[in-house]
Design brief:
Elements: H1 12-15, E1 41-46, H2 74-81, E2 86-92, H3 102-110, E3 115-119, H4 128-137, E4 140-147, H5 149-155, H6 159-171, E5 174-179, H7 184-193, E6 198-201, H8 215-223, E7 230-235, H9 251-261, E8 266-269, H10 282-291, H11 298-314
Parallel strand pairs: 1-2, 2-3, 3-4, 4-5, 5-6, 6-7, 7-8
């Protein structure tokens, strides 16, 4: 699920874009220079789905009309990622399918060298830990949870969520949080309670959705750097700040997080298909990290574009 498509966040409908899937923009030499387009980069956050709802039925919470764009298959994804040197991708279970991870699992099985997965499971089930272990055999190395403030505060004392966080630590799987900024204090409590659990904060904890990077929110996100197993995705540029390429207004936030966490705990992600709608392109997203921020070293870029995601999802 993407920044724009969480069913548990109040701004879902505001940001879920209804535009049809845009054609890949491959004629942008300033973004695809050979000296910056290093092969082998990793996109740490993409959703895929198929219009074949007979074979892969969607949750009763959704209608087929909610699937916008109507299709975003791996093959459609590769048309954007491969021309700019991205050959590995972390698939994030799409909300349309809820707890049925089968389409994602089948795509990982089809392209095992290219994909790892972040699944959605029901933590209230008594066998959730066994489910998590079994999913790891299918390439699932993380689990997505919708971390709005109310839910996250309830998890601190939740036996069911506690089981999930402990099991993730035992399995070497990450808890991947689609968090709102106001949930960060409760996330801090969870990280303190489960210090061995690897935690990934998606999309800068959605700081900047309003158009502004609030200082209190940034401080709360930077404070989580004190927990060695917390990572942050620098992602979903289309939806943050000025929401306009080349997205350089996000550079100061990225540098601040680099200083707090180190580049080895930051990872780039596109949040496709949403990054390639409404006139935005895949190439513009990765170009921000490759070329758009003065102050990122070559080593920083290597970590943010490949090595961090490799350690979290492929190790």
């Amino acid at each position: 699920m993407s920044l724009t498509s969480s069913p548990l966040l109040s701004t879902r409908r505001t940001f879920l874009q209804a535009a049809a899937f845009g054609a890949v923009t491959a004629s942008m030499p300033q973004l695809l220079r050979a000296d910056t387009a290093a092969a082998g980069d990793i996109d740490a956050h993409v959703h895929v789905w198929t219009p074949d709802t007979d074979r892969y039925p969607i949750s009763k919470k959704y209608k087929k009309a909610d699937m916008q764009p109507a299709s975003f298959t791996p093959e459609e994804l590769f048309a954007h990622s491969k021309p700019v040197g991205v050959d590995r991708i972390v698939l994030i279970q799409m909300s349309f399918y809820e707890f049925d991870n089968q389409y994602m699992l089948d795509m990982i099985a089809k392209y095992p060298k290219n994909f790892r997965g972040v699944a959605i499971v029901d933590e209230t089930k008594p066998d959730v830990c066994n489910t998590m272990r079994e999913l790891k055999k299918g390439g699932v190395t993380g689990f997505r949870v919708y971390a709005n403030r109310e839910a996250t505060e309830s998890w601190v004392d939740s036996k069911e969520m506690g089981t999930m966080w402990k099991c993730a630590a035992e399995n070497g799987q990450a808890m991947c949080l689609l968090a709102n900024p106001d949930a960060l204090p409760a996330v801090k409590k969870l990280c303190k309670k489960y210090p061995d659990t690897r935690v990934v904060i998606d999309h800068f904890a959605r700081i900047g959705v309003s158009g502004r990077m609030e200082e209190a929110d940034l401080k709360n996100l930077c404070d989580l750097a004190n927990f060695k197993n917390v990572y942050v995705k620098t992602s979903a540029f289309y939806a943050l700040g000025k929401k306009k390429a080349p997205y350089t207004d996000l550079g100061p936030m990225i540098l601040r997080l680099r200083d707090a966490y180190g580049a080895n705990r930051l990872m780039w992600a596109s949040d496709c298909p949403y990054q390639v709608e409404k006139g935005h392109t895949y190439a513009e997203s990765i170009a921000l990290i490759r070329d758009g921020i003065d102050g990122l070293t070559a080593d920083d870029k290597a970590w943010i574009l490949r090595k961090t995601a490799e350690n979290v999802y492929w190790s």
